[in-house]
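Dataset card, provenance and construction

Sequences and ligand SMILES were collected as paired inputs. For each pair, a complete structure of the chain with the small molecule in place was predicted and serialized as structure tokens. The example below shows a pair involving zinc ion. Curators did not alter the output after generation; any descriptive sentences attached to a record were derived from the structure itself.
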Amino acid sequence: MIEPGHPYIGSVNLLSCLLPDATHVRLETWALEPAQSAITINLHARQATARCPLCGRRSKRIHSRYGRTLADLPWGEYAVTIRLSIRRLFCDNAQCERRLFAERLPGVAAPWAKVSKVSPAKQVE
Ligand SMILES: [Zn+2]
């Protein structure tokens, strides 16, 4: 495996080509694995906080993360996988019925909603 590339070199141009709305995500890492003919691109949300969909209060207290594969695309001999790390956050509003919620990135995830897959939750230490 080749060492993952610097996440910021060319990331703006790359993301604007791959995503319909790259303003809400940043390129975290990418990896090229010639033996598997695979390229994996890992994206994270840019915003430090997310808004509870029920009460609207912002939170930055992270419960866990889970990965969502947005797309598996062929690129020549390579399979390009675009993964998005989604945070589950606590809603700290005592009046709100929602204790946990997943951040929403509609401009990023929605266009691939029909083909994306959710992978098991991963606890944050
Ligand atoms: Zn809430």
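Derived descriptions for this record:
The mean pLDDT is 79.
The first helix runs from residue 11 to 18.
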